[in-house]
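User: Teach me something about this protein's shape.
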Amino acid sequence: CLTMRILCVIPARIGSSRLPHKPLQTIADQPLIRLVTQRVLDFGVADRVVVATDDQRVADGVGDLDAEAVVGTGACSRGTERTASVAALLRFSDAEIVVNVQGDEPFVPLGAVTGAIAGVTRGANVGTAGAPADAAALADRDTVKVFVDENGRALAFSRGPRPLPDVREAEVLHHVGLYAYRPDALRRWVSSEPVPAEIEEGLEQLRPMSYGESIVVHRLDEPVPPGIDTLADLERARALTEVFH
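Assistant: First, the predicted structure itself:
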């Protein structure tokens, strides 16, 4: 699945409300954005890796890595919007698959990325990944859940438990923060109007689903530590990194 031209964008916004200057927060004495970028580079799945940010300091944090930085990618409030703004640039127009690895996911596994890409190469418009999670994680509103049918298709995403009656029998997984898109699906996503459910839950993936776009979910076998949204997440990540080292 890796013979297609793949562009990986890592959106990293400086103005997080819950954790100010999040991309520059350090884990193991390195900025978060640098850890995520190096991890994606080490995977070796993308032809080009781009950090998309609204602040030069974030770009400076990855300046010596084998990645590009695009600063000032418009008035983007969501990672997919920032990813699309990069993919729309002429120098990246040859990409056949666009991957968005969120800049606050330092533990994203290789299998999540390759699985999302594989879903797109098999014909899906959008691919992502989900991992098993314990009851405490699934009860936590900071853990985004994805409800998946037997064919791996996402039925719903939610911060809370079981959002709709018709997903009661679906498998529930912890949603891992990345996407793979066909370029035309990415353009449709960002050109569509936001929907109330997206705004209410703060989950951008509810927009394409509400317009009938299907998202396939690659199931991971092992749990994945959550992304970093809060100071508590950051402290947990620091503790995990100490254990791993």
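Now, about its shape. The mean pLDDT is 91. The longest helix spans residues 231-244. If you'd like, I can walk through any region in more detail.
User: That's plenty for now, thanks!
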